[in-house]
Amino acid sequence: MRSDIDHLGRPVVVVTGMGVLTSLGQGQAANWRALTAGVSGLSRISRFSIAGMKTTVAGTVDFIPVDEMSAPALSERLAELTIDEAIAEAGIGQFGDFPGPLFLAVPPVEMEWPQRLALAAASGANETVTYADLLRAAGSGDFARFNERFLFGSVGEHLAARFGTKGVPIATSTACASGGTAIQLGVEAIRRGEADAALVCGTDASVNPESLIRFSLLSALSTRNDPPSAAARPFSKDRDGFVMAEGAGALVLESLAHARARGATVLGVIEGCGEAADGFHRTRSSPDGKPVIACMRRALADAGLAPDDIGYVNAHGTGTPENDKMEWVGLQAVFGDRAGSIPVSSNKSMIGHTLTAAGAIEAIFSLLAIRHGVLPPTINHEIPDPAVPIDCVPNVARSATVTHAISNSFGFGGQNVCLVVGAA
Amino acid sequence: MPHEVSNPDRDALITGIGLVSCLGEGEDNHWAALNDFAPVVDTASFAPFPVHPVAPLQLDRQISKRDQRQMEPWQRIGTYAAGAALDAAGVKGNADLLGRMELIVAAGGGERDYAVDEAILSGLPKAADPGAYLNQHLLGDLRPTLFLAQLSNLLAGNISLVHGVIGSSRTFMGEESSGVDAVRIACARIEAGQGDLFLVGGSYNAQRPDVILHYEMGGFLWKRPFAPVWARQDAGGGMVLGTVGCFLVIESRAHAAARGAAAVARIGSVQTDRCRRAPGEADAIARRQLDALHYDPAATAVISGASGAAAATREEQAFLAGLGLPVRAVATAFGHSLEPSFPAGLAVAAMAVSRGTLFAPLEPAETAMCEPLRQALVTSRGHWRGEALALVTAA
């Protein structure tokens, strides 16, 4: 039986509940079925006009209705649904009374075009509209709900109130590493004895015209629009960018002692966390992979494991030419001769890049892979890249017994997190 | 970190302050300006909304021209303040220390291209195909690199890039609370041995039409000629926003001692909580937080983070009156700055404690303190959510 205390004398942190929602569907079962069948959740964007767009494909979640659609509104709803699932599985606390803090990975918020246009219309300005006109309309008090909706703290506040988490919710943004950062914050809180349990959620629903165009202007997105299911092709020679996507993942973390005491089923262990920042460039990661190598090594050291203990890597694997190459460089440095034979797959080939939520969603998929003994594939793998000779579990899921896995999250802007997760 | 730290080696010390506001930059300039206070307010640019504008900065002292061009104002202000904090702590340029320094930034978002926004708002309603019009103008008129100024995590990204702080990097979002929790998490990790050396803070550019718009929608802003925080309350209250950048180097006592670093002050406790602000709820939290602390009433002052926003400020004013301690509302001097407001309050408290004296009242509602100052309570009652209390003591 696993000890309650880890190799450094800290409480072992386990996962007792998980919830996930992506373009593949709602819930663990639906997602795992699709993911292991190699199904793509990507589709032609129908939420807004794609006229003039170079990229017209995304992994939107279009089957969850919200009032007054906006990125924070849908992000909050996806978080609610995944947290409901995670808490139900964990069977922890009472309804609306979760016995611990909330750590949330949530996209940065900003008022969006429908709201800006509503203010402009209300201002009565005719020929030209200026911010002074918007300010005049704002003074009417008719738009107070926009103020609350687009506060950076509102998603976290609403979730904390709904689920009765304890203390102030922490909303974190480390770009595409945010989900990993949120998990790390939860693990640290439990390890230092501040909490016996923590609720962690990563959520992102920011596929809107301006977000898509901003990424597009940085040439980060795939423009391989036909068919949408083939757009995301991590580790392939003909990869040409990532595909924006939406989704959420929630985890109930607990100290093993706490989980045991209440007779909870342990689904897996968060064994180690590592992070490192990159000071190389605003949009490019260090070509030598130094920060990525550092965060994987730190995660292994934190877990008290050696590279040889790792049986599977759930890659960051965005499908941009540069990321996948850099990740391979990092894997070579960390795993040496094993780098080419250790299975490394990218969920983003099927669900796209869920950005802020990716770290949480992919940690859940890593835990499910261990639990079910099945590695989800990297689909769309038709032309291997000789510069990235990786075993990406091409196209078809594979059975494998894995005890420890790594889940990588590398953030745009230089923030990198690596998690080591293990079998229950 | 609700209670006094028991192991002195794991005390959290402030060993460097980088502060930028309308009053200038640096500890000494701020201390002088607070002791001889005259409000610095821009009443013209965003009339009728007064705003505290940032003092002119010699950005070249901290950021290369090339890097300055890659940033928007909120990033320049924050990156400048971060560099100043590293200088003050004596870690600037020390690759070994910076390589393991942990960065926690409290951030909102960055500036927009206001001309592009206004052109689209003017043209879109008349366009035959509004969706296509929006796409065409965003694709054609947005500077590709503007995105790098807008993402919340790219203040931290710039600090890593410009100053080489690369041990780790986390960005917290959520107005006032994010600044409090950035400090709280750093102190808790130090206490628990989860880290030794942190750079914590944030920046806020109030001189932006979009942020004024955001708070005006909620009815939070003061729209009359400038008045200090407490004096505003009789006339309905309201926030006057201020541009502020503030970073603190926070490290364990053992780490500071080992490298011979002098400390400005010690952070004895940081407590945070939230409620939905039903009548009395925030006060009940404040009372609980206060009861968890030990302080000497004869040698303690309150550095209040009151925003000026009506309900929360009035409640805090009444609560503080019951304590009978001298109070200073930092927002009177700096303006309210959301994310960095709490780190800036801590910086002011640390300066006062290290000098053993409180600066003169900023308005008639505040009382003078003649006795030596040994400790300061720092409050942060968010304009909407979040209640926090910290204790700063001599190092």
Structural overview:
The complex is a heterodimer of chains A (424) and B (395). By secondary structure, chain A is of the alpha/beta class. Chain A folds into two domains: 13-110 and 150-422, Peroxisomal Thiolase, Chain A, domain 1 (3-Layer(aba) Sandwich); 113-149, no CATH class. Helix content of chain A is 33%, strand content 17%. Chain A is built from 13 helices and 15 strands. In chain A, the strands form three sheets. In chain A, strands 1, 2, 5, 6, 7, 8, 9, 10, 11, 14 and 15 form an eleven-stranded mixed β-sheet that branches. In chain A, β10, α11 and β11 (344-345) form a beta-alpha-beta unit. The longest helix of chain A has 20 residues, at 71-90. In chain A, 65% of the residues are buried. The model of chain A has no long low-confidence stretch (mean pLDDT 97). In chain B, strands 1, 2, 3, 4, 5, 6, 7, 8, 9, 10 and 11 form an eleven-stranded mixed β-sheet that branches. Chain B contains 16 helices and eleven strands. Chain B is an alpha/beta fold. Chain B has two domains: 8-110 and 151-393, Thiolase/Chalcone synthase (Peroxisomal Thiolase, Chain A, domain 1, 3-Layer(aba) Sandwich); 114-145. In chain B, a hairpin with a 2-residue loop joins β1 and β2 (24-25). Chain B starts with 11 loop residues before the first strand and ends with a strand. In chain B, α3 packs across α8 (154-163). Chains A and B meet through α3, α4, α5, α6 and β6 of A and α5, α6, α7, α8 and β4 of B. β6 (170-172) of chain A pairs antiparallel with β4 of chain B.
* Rg of Cα set of chain A: 21 Å
Q: What is the C-level CATH assignment of the largest domain in chain B? A: Alpha Beta
> How far apart lie the N and C ends of chain A?
10 Å
How much helicity do the residues of chain B have?
A: 25-40%
Got a strand count of chain B? 11
Based on CA inertia axes, which overall geometry of chain A fits?
A: globular
Low-confidence stretches of chain A: none
CATH topology call of the largest domain in chain B: Peroxisomal Thiolase, Chain A, domain 1
Query: At the first level of CATH, what is the class of the largest domain in chain A?
Result: Alpha Beta
Number of strands of chain A: 15
